[in-house]
Hints:
Layout: H1 2-41, H2 45-56, H3 59-83, H4 89-112, H5 118-133
Helix pairs in contact: 2-3, 2-5
Amino acid sequence: LHSSKKNLQIRLMDSLYDSASFIARFSHALLVSLVFIIVSELGDKTFFIAAILAMRRPRMVVFLGSIFALGLMHTFSVLVGMSAKLIPRYLTQTVASVLLLVFGGKMLWEGWSMKEGCEQEEFDEVKQEVSKGEV
């Protein structure tokens, strides 16, 4: 009887440890995702489009539309990431590394070849897209 009580205590402690471990992993993944999304989304074209739309349309509608679109895109990204488990790890890492180098190099090249005052052109381009689409 004493042995079964001790086994129950051990199983209970193991389940609590597993729960705490899950919560810690989940919290870490949530925080990292949040930081990366905020850093990567600030200042890009969709940021400016949402800002311009919020100036012209009801803010709550723009906010809900932006949140829905962001959630949809990130759900798709997570599904792609989950499906990557079907591919061998070394191949996934190689492809990810090559893509990072290609896109990173492209962005660096664009940054180095950018002319003075180019940010105003970007803003005007976004403004024109919003006006053209009558969003």
